[in-house]
Write a structure and sequence with these properties.
mainly alpha, 56% helix
Amino acid sequence: MSRDNHRPSGERQPRPPRSSRARGRGREEHIPESEIGPLGMGQAPVKDPLKSFNGMVIASSLTMEALALSFALPMLYKLYDGTLWTPFNYGFVIAAVVFHLVMIAFMNKKWALSVIVWAQLLCVIVGFMVHWAVAAIFIIFGMEWLLAVYLRSNLIARMKRGYLTTQHLNEK
């Protein structure tokens, strides 16, 4: 490894950005020098932050939404003397609960968050056909899923630019 004369002897040169071909995409990404973190690019994080994100955010949100939807079933049964307790209504709510519980098994896949957001949009539309309160559950959790998409993209951008603390733990 070559060293520059203007760097102190103990400081390593920052790693060049990884090519996006290693991740399966066909184009090269170049990060401008002004956007790279003050400690340089660093290395791969000690702990994978996306696994933590999937466990803490996606799994807990899927569980909370499935629980909230299961609380909608007694509402459908009791509200308006049971006129909302139709096979379509309770079948839709039960199918949504099952979908959320099944998606826990796929939460580590790259496409999982996209599928959840699109299913959420569909469920808002169908939720209004069931009852506005069911649609309200999907709207509230839909905002949470949009926040999760934003947070995940922000985390990935920070990893690319070397802004995560765990990217610099083993450096000397």
